[in-house]
Input
Amino acid sequence: MFPPSTLHAWPLDDPRMTRGRVGSLTPYLYAAFYQLQSKESFLEGVARDVVKERIEIDYIELRGPAFENWDRRTLLAHLVSAGFAEAVFSPSKGPAVPPSEALYKKAVVLAPGYFGHVDAAHARVHARLLPSGIRELGNELGETKLEPAGFFCLTAAPAAPNETPPDIPGLLRRIDALLATGADVLLFRRRELYHMTALVNRYTTAPVRFVVGLSLIIRALDDPYGNLEGNRLEALARLFAQNVRICAYPMTVTDLRQSLEAASASSWEWNENDGWVSAAELRRVAPLGHLFAYLLASNFIVPMKVPAALRADA
Output
């Protein structure tokens, strides 16, 4: 017999796509009865045995009086920050579902970033960032029946190896701000773009497009990727796997210069156009500059124009 408060945890390899074996119900029953002191102890109790079987928990549904005061969004964020899931999904409308259901067989636009700025100028950029990528992919798909699905993307990983990970309340504040724009949000465990590619390609073979600011492209190219045997080249090969491109959103000169100074990236040059810089106007010194030029010429990186509304506001 199930306890009065029950847990429904969908494993990664099950969510209505394949049938996977979750294993014994023992950890679920034990956690539901004896490990309700906190969300952390509850999840650790649930995951203790299933993680041994290399199964991720990317969605949890809680029912019963024992969970009435629990915030499910906090629980989902903890799944990612504790390493139980590669990503979790937060919808702006409708019920929460596993990431697999949000991504399944869809053409996808991902807008990754930190999204920590709260001033009006950055809010206008954020409000136009994802829709511009969706329009770009929609024009590319033309008369096909695929309608792009767009997601803002945050990460629970630290912004740099020597920094501390963001706390869950801070993550939820940023998620709420993005949900307020009417867009859906994916929270990823790791910050590298190629990990996002790998997650999305589990569930769709349709086109995948990133829409990012120039600062994130610069970071993606400058990172050494010492954790990979093939370093930078392997990371880029993973990133652009299976019909993936990056739509490069322009930045103001001021924002670009500030981001380069913060990252101590001094090897980039640019031409500006009315105070804005596009990817086509960005250059990097050799030898990495040759690789950047190749990605541009091959349309792996697609420069986007400054929206007229933003140019008018500048």
User: Anything to note?
Assistant: The CA atoms of residues 105 and 313 lie 38 Å apart.
